[in-house]
Amino acid sequence: MRPRSQWRRRLLAFGYGVFYRIPPNWRSRIVKLITPRYVLGSVVLIFDSESVGTQRILVLRQPPGRGWTLPAGLLARHETPIAAACREAAEETGILFAEDQLEPAVPNAVVHNKGHWVDMVFIAHVPASTTELSVDGAEVWEAAWHPVDDLPKLTIATARLLGKYGIGPEAA
């Protein structure tokens, strides 16, 4: 075992020596080629602050309509995750949030290794009775409040994400 360990160390030392002799801009390209890339998105769990007993959450039905989802989307260039969450909530539901109205969920980052994306998840509470929902009909077909223990058919990704927070059919 010791010779293999010594051999491995020597090989790694040689490899690093060669790697660091490569010009920095080429090194950067090599690293980008072999390093996994992840897409970053923001998700907002919007709960009804007036619900008594069972909590209610806002879910969306979007094209192609295979299941219900959450207000979410990809970050724009140079956009912070919380700013993206506010923007997506406004675009998809018509609810305007200031950044200080959203709180990071725990865990805040959910890594989806298979799809190579990371969701930054935030939580908001609004009164459903006085909150006017506005959907555009193109990106979102329908928005509705549902009890967390009686959710409609969710997309697989949404069910898994909510399961990380103890909500829905995938809750542990």
Write up this protein:
The protein is of the alpha+beta class. The protein has helices at residues 2-19, 24-34, 81-93, 156-163, and strands at residues 39-48, 56-61, 68-69, 72-74, 103-112, 117-126, 142-147. It is elongated.
Properties at a glance:
27% strand; alpha+beta; 3-stranded antiparallel β-sheet; single chain; 4 helices; 4-stranded mixed β-sheet; 172 residues; Nucleoside Triphosphate Pyrophosphohydrolase; 7 strands
Identify the CATH homologous superfamily of the largest domain. Nucleoside Triphosphate Pyrophosphohydrolase
CATH architecture of the largest domain: Alpha-Beta Complex
CATH fold field value of the largest domain: Nucleoside Triphosphate Pyrophosphohydrolase
First-last Cα distance? 42 Å
CA-based gyration radius: 22 Å
How many beta-strand elements? Answer: 7
Average pLDDT reading: 91
In which range does the helix fraction lie? 25-40%
